[in-house]
Amino acid sequence: MEKIEQEIRKTAEKLLTDNKVDVVVGYEEGTLPAQAVPVVIESPEDADRLVWNAFCSVNLAKYVHDIIFRHRESQKRVKPEDRTKKVVGIVTRGCTSRSLILHLQEKQYDADQVVMIGVPCTGFVSKKKLSHAVEGREVTACTHEGETLAVTTAAGTTNVPLKQVLADNCLTCRFNNPVISDILLGDPAPPMNADTEYGEVEEFENLTEEERWSYFKKETAKCMKCYACRNTCPSCYCKVCFVEQSQPKWVGAGVDESDTEVFQVMRMFHMAGRCVDCGSCSEVCPMGVDLRKFLKKLDKDAFDLFGYRTGESLDKLPPFGAHAVEDKQDFIYEPNASQ
Amino acid sequence: MTDDTVHEEWQPKIVAFVCNWCTYAGADLAGISRLQYPPNVRLVRLPCSGRVNPFYVVKALQEGADGVLVSGCHPGECHYLTGNLSARRKFAMLKNFLAYIGVEPDRTLFTWVSASEGEKFSHVIKGVTDKVKALGPAQRLVKRF
Questions:
Q1: Does A305 touch chain B (CB under 8 A)?
Q2: Across the interface, which of B58, B85, B92 has its CB nearest the CB of A262?
Q3: Domain boundaries, chain B
Q4: In the 8-state DSSP scheme, what is residue A187?
Q5: Contact (CB, 8 A) for A167 and A57
Q6: Among A151, B51, B83, B127, which is least packed, fewest CB within 10 Å?
Q7: What angle do CA A144, A149, A153 make, to 5 degrees?
Q8: Shortest CB distance from A209 goes to which of B90, B102, B124?
Q9: B72: chain A residues, CB-CB within 8 Å
């Protein structure tokens, strides 16, 4: 991984020096242990801030969208002939590349506005799982050696197996190497356990209706509508989000739990056929809501019903943007003639 | 309360989002032919079933509808050519998702009724009302305040 980090720094420095990009979006070391946070660098001298390790959590595609769109907004009062286009370099792992493909398919920006620095990925550490592994104690230091993490708390240093604390979506990731890239660094990463990816969904489907509803109710009761999930999700890029609309008012502002349940149902349904399962939403949720239990079902349905996996390739378009005469329709209700 | 007060049986409220060109016309035909069907349904007319935002279904359930029906033209007969095909995809996923989180599947139904199928429309409404009545009043996702 250190080798990839060095190559990322060299590539970023070169891209910025040659003016091939205006900015580079990557990860830098966070202020707390076991944390790498997104960073946007503008000058080649800052390239050494970039890191690549098992603590690089959130999906960076959101930043690409934000930067390009804010630049467009700033160009509104500029004469058309003087307008410039912002080109963004981005450290692209598998799920990030899928999100970028989704953006390109949904015509958010052109391919020439983004330079993808593809990197192989073996997953990121979930802060919640890490905290669980040390019984909730504050982590004062954390180093990664091969397949273990040396985690230091007030109770001393313990070795935690990496597999125990990798984010759930990473353990079953199907696309841990970038699907597309402009510059590809390093050797392809070994595959994760993609065949077990729908295991949790299938287990949940086998519960009774009451059990499923009470689980959904319990999880959404934790939600406080901070919208961190929406803010971090690369697929959630609407200028005016449905939660902020008042005509019609989709999400009420009161304390009624149905308002939160409806918000969750609606945001998840917006992800139907668009979620890349990057795990960013679960990672940033301050209340630990089990979002992926429900989002993964939408992922599974998109595959079962339409043979579609988000961001798999540029030419496979999202399911709701198309239709086929042969689509399944066994859910259609046909009344008996005797009624 | 006087002794001869009759306790009224609960009646389900069903909201139906129907397409203007087929199902609404079919409902009109049912009316003209004086066909009897339960009065529990409230029709909302839209230009096409493809115009039905899945959120309308979710919102209807939240606002107290005991059942929601979405009905459009048969595939291949859409007035706007392919609107009902888009709707078919959206509702396939919505129905699966709502059933997965534990909202009773019989509360959300989807049908094809054409403009000449007045009798079918009355059968659809009778069937939907019976199904929803069997489930009882909606409790999940319902707003109380």
A1: yes
A2: B58
A3: 14-133
A4: P
A5: yes
A6: B51
A7: 115
A8: B102
A9: none
